[in-house]
Design a protein that fits this description.
about 200 residues, 3 strands, Helix Hairpins, minor pseudopilin epsh fold, mainly alpha
């Protein structure tokens, strides 16, 4: 059985950039529903329940066809959100940009951090409909700025997610209404670069 992970901070910890009510609904309703739906889909296939979520999505094409779309949507939703909570922290506790090897890799890909932010934001904002904006790692070690529709995980494309922003309306609409660009711009204030650097270093081991 998959379970809803504990939030690493309180619902109001990311104020004023992400409001308390949005965080509460996003976590306790939307994310929780992905977990519940995934568990229900896997009830008839206990052999698939034994896999870690990453492995389940990596083997997505082997999942029984009867539940494949449900696993893609809800397994992806569970994984994406679990990842999302972990790469944010209150502004007062974090630094504003990456350092070390990750910084060098970003500069190699985009020229400088400012250009990376601009590209990432534009990519996320331009995703038609619901989806996610990502910075992911390719198998060859190169970074990729991209977006995915719905709850598709970069893992489905053989990528390792390093940074991601949820651009479903439920992630921002209570506070920002249709102003997706403003939401993404403010979201940068709560990005947990220490955690993202840690994720990047793990890919080398």
């Amino acid at each position: 059985m998959f379970t809803l992970p504990k939030l690493p901070y309180s619902y109001d910890a990311l104020e004023p950039y992400i409001d308390k009510k949005t965080m509460e609904i996003h976590y306790s309703k939307h994310h929780a529903s992905y977990v519940d739906n995934l568990n229900r889909a896997l009830e008839k296939f206990p052999e698939w329940q034994k896999l870690e979520l990453n492995e389940l999505l990596k083997r997505f094409n082997e999942v029984p066809e009867e539940i494949r779309i449900t696993v893609r949507n809800n397994g992806g939703g569970h994984l994406n959100h679990s990842f999302f909570w972990g790469i944010m922290k209150p502004k007062s506790q974090g630094k504003r940009e990456p350092a070390g090897d990750l910084k060098e890799a970003i500069e190699k890909t985009c020229g400088d951090f400012s250009s990376f932010k601009e590209l990432f934001s534009k990519t996320a904002i331009s995703q038609f409909g619901s989806g996610w904006g990502w910075l992911s790692l390719k198998e060859n070690g190169e970074l990729l700025v991209h977006s995915t529709p719905n709850q598709d995980s970069p893992i489905l494309q053989g990528l390792i997610p390093l940074l991601g922003v949820d651009i479903w309306e439920h992630a921002y609409y209570l506070k920002y209404q249709n102003r997706r660009a403003e939401y993404v711009e403010n979201w940068w204030q709560v990005v947990n670069w220490e955690k993202i650097e840690e994720n990047y270093e793990k890919t080398k081991n």
